[in-house]
């Protein structure tokens, strides 16, 4: 086995050995040594967005006469290769690093410069004719490019991955609502019996949650589309030619097909990441919705003999290593765990958002990691819940069979015979283990036809039906 070879690179701190075959350079190597924390590198989605930003910056620098054509061509090709998935192993910097993300910015700068120099006849590790700072980072700073790439990557992931997944889940819930509309069962409030409801109405409620989740994403995306690029170091735009950020953002908008805009207040867009905190809040709300839906499904399918048992979910795997024949709602369970993870991510992002000390937030890498992973997890979960659980749900006969036994079936009697008398009927039915209908025939003072008309479960499920608004 041959020994690993190294090259010597130098930065402002001194010399350092860098693996000969590495496309990254000395600053990346220092970050590898400085932050042996988690082994979690920045998400690929972030790296792609950051490299795309570098490519757009190179084009604008060329158009402004700051970069020559040979360097532009080499940088552009190198960037497009990385965007396409090449050199993925060259971005090893841990997320728990310098809070501005400078280590990741330099990692990207070094890899692109190294590959560009290779394309121009040199070798990996060369800093000429393309220099990582002078050319790849031209007109930029880590302080405005890292938050820009964070917002851009989150925006792309929401629009391309999460939103379609949520639509898939909403469509599945609406289809199931229509399929189960004829099934009338006992409603539940406070985990206690309530007036009748259609099983399809319960699922319509779930669909409404996911529909509104997408509306909340609209607000989040509006904030994420305002980019920090143009502020450079502290928001003043030092070392940036006039119009640079606007032109770069216009290119990015065209490439990704999304409406992006430069911040009109760079001091807030670099000292704070309120847009990311807001987006995380939207993700948390979606997670809470999914948690509620998944838990309701778990309860409704509980049993099949000793639980509620009003629905059956698809049997996707054996439920127990010791109890033969057991089937568990594992898809719903996985969704609840993802929801809990997202809520945890939001707590981290909330705390990170408070770390905008003076002119710069210093928890950007962990926000990028948690926000992008959160979007990815929610997208996969929404699709999985729709396809492997919701679409295969089947109603049992338990709900309709238990409906006649429900004590709150008495509710429409109250406007006719009074609340107290109706309560007496409920108590008598409970004590004697008879139905509300049977006791009402005896105690309500109404005819059997009048009782039957009032105690029509289907009428109770519609606005303006028996019992009025209640």
Question: Would you kindly provide a written description of the structure presented here, covering whatever features stand out?
Answer:
This protein has 470 residues and is mostly helical. The chain folds into 3 domains: 22-125, Fumarase/aspartase (N-terminal domain) (Fumarase C, Chain B, domain 1); 144-398, Fumarase C, Chain A, domain 2, CATH 1.20.200; 404-460, Ribonucleotide Reductase Protein R1, domain 1 (Orthogonal Bundle). Helices cover 57% and strands 7% of the residues. It contains 18 helices and 10 strands. The protein has helices at residues 26-34, 44-63, 69-83, 102-119, 132-136, 142-179, 199-224, 244-256, 266-271, 274-300, 330-353, 364-388, 398-403, 414-417, 419-432, 436-443, 448-454, 457-460, and strands at 6-10, 15-19, 184-189, 192-198, 226-227, 261-262, 311-312, 356-357, 360-361, 394-395. The longest helix has 38 residues, at 142-179. The relative contact order is 0.10. The model has no long low-confidence stretch (mean pLDDT 96).
């Amino acid at each position: 086995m041959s020994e690993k070879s190294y090259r010597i690179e130098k930065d402002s701190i001194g010399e350092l050995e860098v693996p000969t075959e590495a496309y990254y350079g000395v600053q990346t190597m220092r970050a590898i040594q400085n932050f042996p924390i988690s082994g979690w590198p920045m998400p690929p989605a972030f790296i792609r967005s950051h490299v795309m930003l570098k490519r757009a910056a190179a084009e604008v620098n060329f158009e402004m006469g700051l970069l020559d054509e040979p360097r532009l061509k080499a940088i552009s090709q190198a960037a497009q290769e990385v965007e396409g998935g090449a050199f993925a192993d060259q971005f090893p910097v841990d997320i728990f690093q310098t809070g501005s993300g400078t280590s990741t910015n330099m990692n990207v700068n070094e890899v692109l410069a190294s590959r560009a120099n290779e394309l121009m006849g040199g070798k990996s590790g060369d800093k000429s004719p393309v220099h990582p700072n002078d050319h790849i980072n031209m007109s930029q700073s880590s302080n405005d490019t890292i938050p820009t790439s964070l917002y851009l990557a989150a925006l792309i992931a929401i629009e391309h991955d999460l939103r379609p997944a949520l639509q898939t889940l909403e469509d599945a819930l609406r289809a199931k609502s229509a399929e189960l509309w004829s099934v009338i069962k006992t409603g539940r409030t406070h985990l206690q019996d309530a007036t009748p409801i259609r099983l399809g109405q319960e699922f319509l409620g779930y669909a409404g949650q996911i529909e509104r989740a997408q509306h909340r994403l609209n607000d989040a995306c509006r904030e994420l589309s305002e980019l920090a690029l143009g502020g450079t170091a502290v928001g003043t735009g030092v070392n940036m030619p006039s119009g640079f950020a606007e032109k770069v953002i216009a290119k990015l908008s065209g490439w990704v097909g999304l409406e992006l805009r430069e911040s009109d207040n760079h001091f807030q867009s670099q000292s704070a990441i309120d847009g990311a905190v807001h987006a995380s809040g939207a993700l948390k709300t979606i997670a809470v919705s999914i948690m509620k839906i998944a838990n309701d499904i778990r309860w409704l399918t509980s049993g099949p003999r000793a639980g509620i048992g009003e629905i059956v979910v698809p049997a996707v795997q054996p439920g127990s290593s010791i109890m033969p024949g057991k089937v568990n709602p594992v898809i719903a369970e996985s969704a609840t765990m993802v929801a809990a993870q997202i809520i945890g991510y939001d707590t981290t992002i909330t705390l990170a958002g408070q770390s905008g000390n003076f002119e710069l937030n210093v928890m950007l890498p962990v926000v990028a990691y948690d926000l992008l992973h959160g979007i990815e997890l929610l997208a996969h979960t929404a699709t999985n819940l729709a396809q492997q659980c919701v679409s295969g749900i089947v109603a049992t006969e338990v709900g309709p069979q238990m409906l006649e036994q429900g004590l709150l079936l008495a509710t429409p009697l109250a406007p006719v015979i009074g609340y107290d008398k109706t309560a007496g009927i409920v108590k008598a039915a409970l004590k004697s283990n008879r139905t509300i209908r049977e006791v009402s025939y005896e105690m309500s003072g109404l005819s059997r036809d009048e009782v039957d008309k009032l105690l029509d479960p289907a009428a109770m499920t519609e606005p303006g039906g028996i019992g009025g608004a209640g």
